Amino acid sequence: MLIAQLTDLHIGAGRRLAYRKVDTAGALENAVAYVMSMEPRPDVVLFTGDIGDLGTPDEYALVAEILKDLTIPYFMVPGNHDCRAPLCAAFPDATPVASGQAFVNYVVDDFDLRLIALDTLEEGKPGGVLPTEQLDWLRDVLAEEDERDCLIFLHHPPILTGITHMDVQNLGAGADGLADIVRAHRDRIRAIICGHVHRPIHTIWAGVPLSIGPSVAHQVAFDLRVGGASAFVMEPPALHLHVWDADQKNLMTHMAYIDRHDGPHPFFDETGKLIV
User: Fold this and answer.
1) pLDDT digits (tens, 9 = 90+) for 22-78
2) How far apart are CA 185 and CA 144, in angstroms?
3) Euclidean distance between the first and final Cα of the chain, in Å?
4) Does pTM surpass 0.85?
5) What is the pLDDT of residues 49-65, one digit of tens each?
6) Do 178 and 184 touch, CB atoms closer than 8 A?
7) At residue 155, does pLDDT exceed 80?
8) Cα atoms in the Cβ-side hemisphere of radius 13 Å centred on 156
9) DSSP helix/strand/coil, 5
10) pLDDT score for 196
11) Which residues are CB-contacts of 93 (< 8 A; sequence separation ≥ 6)?
12) Which of 51, 81, 121, 267 has the fewest Cβ atoms surrounding its Cβ within 10 A?
């Protein structure tokens, strides 16, 4: 099973440039084209938040127009730049929440690996939260008879990365409760994948692998100084590809650059002989 993770799109209505610099709509078009050109193609695409930049219906209409070329099943969770109601209205199939449910939490059971979506959005604030209601929901899901291996995807990471201006807006309230739940089910939770930080980061948290995906548009500046400046850089847009081997019960993560580069080129030794 192959999972493509696209995150932090920051699409502006009317193709507005993010921060007066970044063509995020063009970046999403490039990302969709890249995914659709892959051999083999991913089985599913997971969008880990910040689909829009302001969370307006016009933004989501533009995202939907671009995603018409994405013929692979895809699912979304909101990020801090999103708004739940317009996101769910624009993408009901990609946010299949139960009727009357206040949060964008759901389970996808269509694949070898069970996919569990968690909504960490606290509307109007940059940081994330997981209220007791949501933690109880996750606890109930993991207590079901379905003993399949699973992957949790959410926007805000529950870790400190060392990038100060992002760490002050990570997953706050509820992170400890989430850790307790994950630790209790670490034999089944094969990974937690997040967005938000605009950088590829990998660690072990609560006994399971946790990764943060790079943005398909712009990246946060790599600055580990205490109190480092809040800034972004135009490092190459990228995505994570998670490969699930059900027989080996192993999830492997690759990072792929979306931009086209020179190559591929064959290898030759010092005599000019082709290395095969």
Assistant:
1) 999 999 999 999 999 999 999 999 999 999 999 999 999 999 999 999 999 999 999
2) 12
3) 28
4) yes
5) 999 999 999 999 999 99
6) no
7) yes
8) 27
9) strand
10) 98
11) none
12) 267
Q: Which two tokens stand for residue 31?
A: 């990302």
Q: What is the CATH number of the domain that holds 205?
A: 3.60.21.10
Query: Is the pLDDT score of 260 beyond 90?
Result: no
* Within a domain: 33: yes
**Side chain identity at 128, as an amino acid letter?**
G
Residues 6+ apart with CB under 8 A from 110: 44, 73
251 - beta bridge partners? Answer: 244
Q: Give exposure, 72-82, as e/b (b: 16+ Cβ within 10 Å).
A: bebbbbbbbbb
**Cα–Cα distance between 83 and 32 in angstroms, integer?**
23
Helix (H, G, I), strand (E, B) or coil at 196: coil
Q: Is residue 262 part of a domain?
A: no
Instruction: Please list, in sequence order, all residues whose beta carbon lies within 8 angstroms of the beta carbon of residue 67, skipping any fewer than 6 positions away.
Output: 32, 74
Check if the beta carbon of residue 257 is closer than 8 Å to that of residue 237: yes
Structural domains in the chain (count) = 1
pLDDT one-digit tens code per residue, 165-221: 999 999 999 999 999 999 999 999 999 999 999 999 999 999 999 999 999 999 999
Q: Report the pLDDT averaged over residues 256-276.
A: 88
C-alpha span between 50 and 144 (Å, rounded) = 30
Q: Evaluate whether residue 220 is within a structural domain.
A: yes
3-state helix, strand, coil in the chain (%, to 5): 20, 25, 50
Q: What is the pLDDT of residue 208?
A: 97
Q: Which domain holds residue 180?
A: 2-257
